[in-house]
Each structure stands twice: as structure tokens, then as C-alpha cells.
């Protein structure tokens, strides 16, 4: 049979760098030909060859209700008829922001933007402008978008500059970015001892979804908060992935269960809050947010920020996930999946560990869950590629990379989970 995915990929490569508009889609990490998707419904999508897949990437997180939820479709269709974009304020922008503030009390004011990269970049500029400091802390394995200052890996020691991880990023742009090891308490203490009065912000994925699924430990998160408060640096939570995905109140609400009163100074959000449309946000305390133009000296702007169709999509999605019992049901489905995968791997003697929160999960071909990026790197990449392609051949679409989290939606049925587990049992046996 003619492989239409290959035909489309060959065609794309002649006009799009690598044939894709975001690198992970190219299947370069796992090998093979990417699937070109034609349409989706519920928990499934179909490729150019008309093969159906159970979707566990959900557009990398946003599709928490599944594809084509009727409530969201109705809201988007109505908004589209009223106008695609105005370049002027709308009431829906206010409504969406008011919803975000109710769900995330640490944010007193919010600015809407169009992408997670834009939100993280703007939050860092605001932190620097509000504090008058230059340095920022990030952690190896956490991804905050592709702004120049964030494409950096650690130097050889705490006192050395970070090194760019992309061509085109000048060394002087990343010299104020300090890259530390996730969950390393001593290194964090030493860094603040060395640079405490120079640090504008510490940015962290509280549940890191870009080294698969790794949680910040309770002691580590408590120390982040303590040191930022002590040294008057801003604690910035990147909840682009975890926001309204691991819980209605996002990851910060999960940490509050163990750390009463805990909250970050700023939060970066995206994905779920836009329901699949290009929409993101950053917010924080009023005194910080009022440093933004037109009130303050920190400039930030966007032609399509607060887009009327995107805000309609986001509002409908947030209303749906706010219904009583939504996250309890979603968490049970995700737990059923990860527990089933773990049991199947164990039956067949395959090293495997998994974790989940709400509708977000991750698994590793390791006997124990890793705590940081170096431990994640010990996972068996070749074995993962065999597992990925084995599952793909059976119509199960996991992330095409070892270091990406997965997502369950409200549209996934018990039959979908069981089909996935049956496929996994067969693939684990072949490994």
C-alpha cells in the first residue's frame, strides 16, 4: 500500500526545514516516518493512511476534554462568526483572566499572550525589570520555550557561565542564566550563597514534563520558596504544561497540600487554558504586574494577544474542567493506565517505572523513578524506540521521544485504556 505519510513527509521536507514546524514531530529521536494527521475526535485521531490511533499526546497537553468537545466547538464557532481578531479589547479577555485568577489565587493580575515561549520570556523580562537584577536560575531538563536566554546548559561549576544549546544564541545572552540540577538542595543553597543579591528569579517546572515526568520533591520546593523569599528573588512557576492539567488549581495547589500557604510569585500558563488554540498567560502579584506597560517601564505587547476566538475556546474548556468530579475521574483513568503499564512490564521482566498526577503521566524504562535529568538520561533509549514503534503499529500514539510526558483526556474510555494495556502487554513480551 502506498504510504501517504511518507509521501507527505517527502513533500514537506522540500519546503519546511526537516519537514515539520516543531522538531519533535519529525520522529528523529525514535526513527521512522511521522504520522500526518487528517482529523481527530474524542480520544482518537487518524493519519493520512486512515489508521486510527489512541492519542496520548493531546496536542502536547491542551486537549484535556479530548478532540471536538461539543461545548468547545459551539463556543469557537460562535466566536468565529463574530470576528477572528480585532486588535482591540474584548469582554472575553476579562472573563478568561477572571477565571484564571479564581483558579490560581497566587495570581492577582494576568497578561494574555499567544504562546508558552512568549509567556516565559515576558515573565523573565518582568522579573528583571521589577527587581533590577539580571541573573536567573533554571534547572537542567526543564524547558521554558525557545527564548535565547533559556536555551542554555550548565557550565562546569556554579561560578561558570552557562553555555548556549543552540546555534545563533550568543554566549553573552546566556551568561546570566544559572543552570542547576533539579532536586539538588545543596547546589541550590550554594548558588544563592554565591549570587543571592543578583538573582531576579528562579524559574521551575514544578512537575517537569520535558524530561518526561519528574516531580520537584517537597523539601526542594520548600527550599526554593525559602531562598527566593530570603534573597528577594521572584519564584516563577512554569505551569504551561501542568497548569489546569494535573489539578484544577494547577501544580501549585498540589504542593499546597504539603506546604500550607505555599505559592509562587509569578505563574506562566498555556496549553489547557487555551483549549488547543494559541493562547498563554503570565500572572502574579499586583505590585509586580503593574510594572508592565502601559502602567510601568517593562515593555510587552502582542498583536494577537487575547485573541477573541482563542479566549472563547479557553473559557469553554475551563468551564468544563471546573465541573464537580472532573479531575477525580480524570485521575482515575490516568492511574489505571500507569498501573496497568507497570504491571505488564513487571510480568515480562522489563525495567519500568511510572508516575502521574491528574491527567498527566510519564514512564521510564528504569527500575525506579528518576529525580533529575542525569538520572533520566540513564533510561534505555533503544528499548524505548522499540516500545514506541511496537505501540504505534498497534494504533497507540505515545510521545515520539523518550523525554516527553503523556496526557489522558476526559474522552478516553475504559475500552481505550484496556486496548492500550493489551497492546502494551504484547509489546513488552516482544522486548
How is the topology of this model organized?
Blueprint: H1 4-13, E1 37-41, E2 44-47, E3 52-55, H2 70-82, H3 91-103, E4 109-113, H4 116-131, E5 135-139, E6 152-153, E7 163-164, H5 171-174, E8 177-180, H6 185-195, E9 199-204, E10 207-208, E11 214-215, H7 218-231, E12 234-239, H8 250-256, E13 266-269, E14 280-284, H9 286-289, H10 308-321, H11 326-347, E15 353-357, E16 360-364, H12 373-376, H13 381-393, E17 396-397, E18 406-407, H14 414-430
Helix pairs in contact: 2-10, 3-10, 6-7, 11-14
How is this structure best described in words?
With 431 residues, this protein is α/β, with parallel strands linked by helices. The protein has a domain at 70-321: Aspartate Aminotransferase, domain 2, CATH 3.40.640. 38% of the residues lie in helices and 16% in strands. It has helices at 4-13, 70-82, 91-103, 116-131, 171-174, 185-195, 218-231, 250-256, 286-289, 308-321, 326-347, 373-376, 381-393, 414-430; strands spanning 37-41, 44-47, 52-55, 109-113, 135-139, 152-153, 163-164, 177-180, 199-204, 207-208, 214-215, 234-239, 266-269, 280-284, 353-357, 360-364, 396-397, 406-407. The strands form five sheets. The protein has a seven-stranded mixed sheet, with helices on both faces. A four-stranded mixed sheet has the order 1-2-3-17. A three-stranded antiparallel sheet has the order 15-16-18, covered by helices on one side. The model has no long low-confidence stretch (mean pLDDT 95).
Amino acid at each position: 500500500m502506498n504510504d501517504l505519510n511518507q509521501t507527505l513527509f517527502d513533500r514537506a521536507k522540500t519546503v519546511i526545514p526537516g519537514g515539520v514546524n516543531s522538531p519533535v514531530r519529525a520522529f528523529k529521536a525514535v526513527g521512522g516516518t511521522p504520522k500526518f494527521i487528517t482529523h481527530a475526535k474524542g480520544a482518537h485521531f487518524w493519519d493520512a493512511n486512515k489508521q486510527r490511533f489512541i492519542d496520548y499526546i493531546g496536542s502536547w497537553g491542551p486537549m484535556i476534554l479530548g478532540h471536538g468537545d461539543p461545548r468547545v466547538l459551539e463556543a469557537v464557532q460562535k466566536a468565529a462568526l463574530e470576528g477572528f481578531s480585532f486588535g482591540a479589547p474584548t469582554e472575553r479577555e476579562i472573563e478568561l483572566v477572571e477565571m484564571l485568577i479564581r483558579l490560581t489565587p497566587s495570581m492577582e493580575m494576568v497578561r494574555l499572550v499567544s504562546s508558552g515561549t512568549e509567556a516565559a520570556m515576558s515573565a523573565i523580562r518582568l522579573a528583571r525589570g521589577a527587581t533590577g537584577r539580571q541573573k536567573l536560575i533554571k534547572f537542567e531538563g526543564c524547558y521554558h520555550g525557545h527564548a535565547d536566554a533559556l536555551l542554555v546548559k550548565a557550565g562546569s561549576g556554579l561560578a561558570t557561565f552557562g553555555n548556549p544549546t543552540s546555534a545563533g544564541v550568543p554566549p553573552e545572552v546566556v551568561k546570566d542564566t544559572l543552570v542547576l540540577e533539579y532536586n539538588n538542595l545543596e547546589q541550590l543553597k550554594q548558588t544563592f550563597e554565591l549570587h543571592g543579591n543578583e538573582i531576579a528569579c528562579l524559574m521551575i517546572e514544578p512537575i517537569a514534563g520535558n524530561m518526561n515526568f519528574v516531580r520537584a520533591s517537597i523539601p526542594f520546593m520548600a527550599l526554593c520558596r525559602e531562598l527566593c523569599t530570603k534573597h528577594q528573588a521572584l519564584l516563577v512557576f512554569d505551569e504551561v504544561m501542568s497548569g489546569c492539567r494535573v489539578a484544577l488549581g494547577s501544580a501549585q495547589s498540589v504542593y499546597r497540600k504539603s506546604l500550607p500557604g505555599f505559592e509562587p510569585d509569578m505563574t506562566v500558563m498555556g496549553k489547557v487554558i487555551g483549549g488547543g488554540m494559541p493562547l498563554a498567560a503570565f500572572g502574579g502579584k499586583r505590585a509586580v504586574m503593574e510594572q508592565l506597560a502601559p502602567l510601568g517601564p517593562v515593555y510587552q505587547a502582542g498583536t494577537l494577544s487575547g485573541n477573541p476566538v482563542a479566549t472563547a475556546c479557553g473559557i469553554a474548556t475551563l468551564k468544563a474542567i471546573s465541573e464537580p468530579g472532573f479531575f477525580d475521574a480524570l485521575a482515575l483513568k490516568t492511574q489505571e493506565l500507569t498501573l496497568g503499564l507497570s504491571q505488564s512490564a513487571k510480568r515480562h521482566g522489563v525495567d519500568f517505572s511510572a508516575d502521574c498526577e491528574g491527567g498527566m503521566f510519564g514512564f521510564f524504562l528504569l527500575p525506579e523513578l528518576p529525580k533529575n535529568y542525569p538520572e533520566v538520561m540513564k533510561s534505555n533509549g533503544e528499548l524505548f524506540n522499540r516500545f514506541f514503534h511496537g505501540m504505534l503499529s498497534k494504533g497507540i500514539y505515545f510521545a515520539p521521544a523518550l523525554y516527553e510526558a503523556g496526557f489522558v483526556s476526559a474522552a478516553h474510555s475504559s475500552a481505550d485504556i484496556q486496548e492500550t494495556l493489551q497492546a502494551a502487554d504484547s509489546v513488552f513480551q516482544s522486548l
